[in-house]
Amino acid sequence: MDHSHMDHSHMDHSMMDHSAMDHGNMGGNGMGGGMGDRCSMNMLFTWETKNLCIVFRQWHVRSTSGLIISLLLVVALAAGYEALRAASRRYENSVNKRIESLPRREQVEASKSAHLLKAALYAAQNFYAFMLMLVFMTYNGWVMVAVAVGAFVGYALFGSTTSSTKDNACH
């Protein structure tokens, strides 16, 4: 009996037993069909290096050389965060000095426009920090160490005028 003309959209299928259904030809999200080349998503600490995806599906580590390049990139990203923080501090210090040298009536207007750029730098720092947090949250030990090494390198290169203590763990 042909039921193709019947509308079944109003029926509740949540209680149906789907265990007997064949899902063998469902493919792997356009990645060649099997489970061998898929991103692993860990919610527990791991040192695994196969099928590691860092934040994006496109950043898929499949080899030892890919892992080394990715770890170096993570180190550079974490160091770059410290560079952005240092650049923001330099900008803020220079703008404050410039504003202080202006006549009193011009200081308010200059302060308003400078504050907009400081707010944009602050937003960029927050975005950057949260993206690094997502990198860290791969729960992969190698990636976590790379973030810490990058923070060290970045602070060593760019943090000469900054206290080593931070008031917020995320940014």
From TrEMBL:
One GO cellular component term noted in the UniProt record for this chain: membrane
Q: What is its main location?
A: membrane
Q: Subcellular location, in the record's words? A: Membrane
The UniProt entry lists membrane topology as: Multi-pass membrane protein
MF GO annotations: copper ion transmembrane transporter activity
Keywords, ordered alphabetically: Copper, Copper transport, Ion transport, Membrane, Transmembrane, Transmembrane helix, Transport
Q: Which Pfam families does the UniProt entry name for this protein?
A: Ctr (PF04145)
Concerning its family, UniProt says: Belongs to the copper transporter (Ctr) (TC 1.A.56) family. SLC31A subfamily.
Tell me the protein's name: Copper transport protein
What is the phylogenetic placement of the source species in the record?
A: Eukaryota, Fungi, Dikarya, Ascomycota, Pezizomycotina
